[in-house]
Amino acid sequence: MTQQTHPISWLIGSSLTAAALALGVIGISLSLSGTGYADDNHELQQTITPNPEYTAECGSCHMAYPPTLLPADKWRAITANLADHFGDNASLAPQVSASIEAYLVQQAAQHGKVMKHNVPLPAGAGPQRITEQAFFIRKHDEIPRHMVQDNPKVGSFSQCSTCHHLAEKGIFDEDTVNIPGVGRWND
Q: Does the reported pTM lie above 0.90?
């Protein structure tokens, strides 16, 4: 013999089930909506105006990093000390340095938020190197050292475009990762 469910119990149970399903759908849709960077959707990345001066000057020694990888205060600090640019003298003529800084600041990660749902870094806080930023470490923490740092075809995590073939456009989607000598990276 089955017992009839009380209408209030049925209503509460149905409401809780519907709420749980709605939260699940929202969670799945948020997790599929991007790679986590505040400025990571392809449409936005394509709006980053390339700067030939920045690409020529900075790109002559390393990849011309997409400005959206750091907030404006970090770019200001980097361009203010080019005579000791991470151990190298990268000094530029003052007008060239000012022009590049203006470009980087204009295109920088907005409001100090490099990742979605991140608390902004207070001005002057945190490391200057992109590879020391919390978002970078979180995205690369599972990659074994031998695949990058001990790999002569890569050498360093700072060589983004070696594995991320769309890095200079600001696209770091996991689907575009191909580590030289290793192959496609599956997280």
A: no
